[in-house]
Design a protein that fits this description.
about 80 residues; about 0% strand; elongated
Length: about 80
Amino acid sequence: MPADNSIHLVAAARQRHEQTRAKAIRAIHELDQAGAVLTFESVARHAGVSRSWIYTQTDLKDEIGRLRAQHRPESS
């Protein structure tokens, strides 16, 4: 019976997920610092990740929304 190497697959998937999150977080901060308009599309493009993946990350969605609201001009 072959050895169960699934632990290595799980570890690789976890590492890939964390690297993807780090790229997205870095993209959000870089775009914000540059004064660029933050959209899910711009973050995805800048980070090299899919837009649909960003939608699955609640904290990233919330951060994008928070930063967008922060930069919105006050209405009179």
